[in-house]
Amino acid sequence: MSDDPLSPNSVPFNPQVAVIGTPSSDGDATCHHDAVPDPTVTRDQAERVADLFKVLGDPTRVLILRTLADAGEVCVRHLAEAVGTSQSSVSHHLRLLRATSLVRTRRVGREVYYRPDDEHVVQLIAICADHVAHAALAAASPAGTTAAAASEAAIHA
Asked: pTM for the full model?
């Protein structure tokens, strides 16, 4: 077993436990935690969150959102240059991002400027990027070192 409590190998699998926190039909109670509360989101909310992550599942859209988060307001031409793709492709991605309320627009004459819809979008992209960096750091750490210890070591290096 791993020393990392979040490792998938840290808790042995027991097929006798039918529901978390509830003994199986033969009385084997191997879970040692409090009762699990109901989810704090409805099924409809969970589906909308899943749809949001589907939209974020494209690297070009992530690059667009990260660029907007870093730069603020940007026109399609400069977004295309920044993410290394065509204006047509960026426009297509921006339509999807706008339809899911991830970006908003401001028109000045014929030019349209895009920006993150609100601070939640900026935070979401930043948290996801931090998580990816953290996971990469943990994967690169020596065996037996927890992700938290590896992150702490990297901060003080």
From this structure: 0.68
